[in-house]
Amino acid sequence: MLKQLFVAAVGISLLVGYSGLSRCETLCWETLEPKNITGFDFEVRDNVTGPDKSGWYTYTYTIFGIDYGPVIYRSISHISFWFPCGLAAQRSVLYGPQGITVTYIKNGLPVATGCAKIEMGGTNGMSEPVLNQECRFFWGFKFDECNEDDFLIPNANGSSYPNDLYYEPYCVITFKSRSAPEWGKWLVKGGRHKGVDNGGMFYDAGDLRVPTCVPAVDAGNMTWGGIKTIYR
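RE: above sequence
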């Protein structure tokens, strides 16, 4: 009984201590809307399954650019994913950034990419330059600066993924979490396209499901090892 009370208290402290985002930060993210800019237009499709028998949810995101045919396509600086619940939700991801798998598909085959480095913020969160200065930091995860000019650039035949499944590049991100889903946001920021335009001012954004706060657990149904994994 004491063990159950202790674990419940830990769960409550996580919910209270780590989900208290400033109202400003919440508003900054909630007002991000799709830009649908020709040459810098993206879509992120989410799929959440679970919980499985071990209590894990599996989150899968598929990211791709919209193919407008023969137009100028701008490169990507980074991609951010916002968890409204904050640090508690971020800590629910199994193994943290090492537990997030990124697979980049190009011409129908998985290829190596310099855009697969994952960052997750600590107590102070991460910086998103698109947001206003007073509420720039957030919790969730993002790809660090992308050093490929052609990452997720469509093949300019006018047909987008998944209709052009073999030729269009796309990226699949997968991780496991103890937390059930809630609605969050994704954001793709433009990069400098070979230094000739102001692509860094472009961004696209949209809604997707992300982990919410970890609920308090019944210690009678879990080992201490499992509890430590959740509340590490």
